[in-house]
Specification:
Length: about 375
């Protein structure tokens, strides 16, 4: 069967644009200062393909409600009022002698998160929605009840070379240009101590790689997360909250370390972790660590101290959500097995972390021990 000219031409254009994008990326650098430059991040011009439509002669499969995002709350708490800082900023944070900007940044290894003083998650949620929309993203998960917000896959248009040819005819065929990469961001919003709010941003990435002897076909592969890109969006968020570009960079540079010891306990044929800090801080750190692994947090119940997680298949998500949807048919992949990661107080300043079964007993399976080992590596 002959290939259509349209498909051949599309592949040729895609291969050419990918090759150019690869050369550009090889020539660049990924330091934090580079990513904080205003021309390094631009998702506003990106478009996503429409979702796959179900043919009229087929019915959709049953989707377990445990994987469905909680309903969007119609009425959150009142918007955070602006406060005047000693430097003259109108910030959403509540300035204190320790935090004159009303916020500060903490870090655990290469992961950073923003602590906004004197404000609740409900007060900040509407501004977080605006933040991602203003930066060109569509929200895939918007669940204030669980503090989880994630974007759909999008392309950083700043990675596309702005050469003379694109400047000449780019407006006519700009859809044919592609950086060969897609990014997704997840925001975890957690109530902290003293009525503060902890906000973290994590990055996931995919890259289109040329395949075949003639390099006319391609496939999508996972790329490592980019801590500098996460920091760049954290800086943008601080500007949204009222700081200047210089002040946001200052807080990133002065991020406060939060690295208490984490011990692995494998006695009795089980694997658990002991974190030398109270439950509140351990709960936050475990959530951040899960985001750094290939596990996705579908839901969480702070009262029970449980994160509900599953293995994340980014390739399947790309196909299902429309970027490649027009080239694929068939039913969506079945959701992978769900695990329960339990965080529970063990002493006043000691917290235990374990993967548990439906009865609350420590899970001794190989997969459960692998999750504990991954968490141990991320928390140390």
């Amino acid at each position: 069967m002959k290939r259509s000219a349209l498909i051949n031409n599309a592949r040729t254009i895609g291969a050419l644009s990918l090759a150019i994008g690869t050369l550009i990326s090889l020539g660049g650098c990924d330091t934090l200062n580079d990513w904080l430059a205003p021309d390094r991040v631009n998702y506003k011009g990106a478009e996503t393909a429409p979702s796959l439509a179900v043919p009229s002669d087929l019915t959709t499969g049953d989707i377990s409600q445990r994987y469905a995002a909680p309903p969007k709350l119609n009425s959150l708490g009142g918007a955070a009022p602006r406060s005047l800082t000693p430097a003259g900023n109108a910030t959403v944070g509540l300035p204190t002698p320790q935090d004159p900007f009303g916020m500060h940044v903490e870090r655990d290894g290469d992961r950073r998160w923003l602590v906004v003083d004197g404000r609740s998650p409900d007060q900040l949620w509407p501004q977080l929605q605006e933040f991602w929309e203003e930066n060109g993203f569509t929200l895939k998960t918007d669940a204030p009840a669980t503090g989880i917000m994630s974007t759909d896959w999008a392309e950083n248009r700043a990675n596309i070379p702005d050469d003379w040819f694109r400047k000449s005819v780019g407006k006519l065929i700009d859809f044919a240009y592609s950086s060969g990469t897609r990014d997704q961001f997840r925001t975890l919003v957690e109530r902290g101590s003293n009525n503060s709010t902890d906000i973290s941003i994590s990055h996931a990435a995919m890259e289109e790689v040329l395949t075949g002897q003639d390099k006319t076909s391609s496939k999508w592969e996972e790329r490592p997360r980019n801590p500098a890109l996460e920091a760049a969006f954290l800086a943008k968020l601080m500007e949204k909250f009222g700081l200047t570009d210089a002040q946001a960079k200052q807080l990133l540079t002065e991020a406060r370390p939060a690295e208490p010891a984490v011990a692995l306990d494998q006695s009795g044929g089980t694997s658990t972790l002991d974190i030398s800090e109270p439950f509140d801080r351990a709960w936050l750190r475990v959530g951040l660590a899960l985001d750094r692994t290939n596990f996705t947090v579908d839901n969480r119940d702070r009262a029970k101290g449980v994160y509900y997680v599953r293995f994340s298949d980014s390739m399947a998500e790309l196909k299902k959500e429309g970027l490649l949807g027009k080239l694929f048919t068939g039913s969506a992949p079945k959701p992978s097995r769900e695990f329960m990661v339990n965080v529970r107080p063990k002493a006043d300043a000691l917290t235990q972390v374990a993967v548990v079964d439906a009865n609350g007993q420590v899970d001794t399976s190989t997969d459960a021990q692998r999750i504990v080992a991954l968490l141990h590596a991320q928390l140390n």
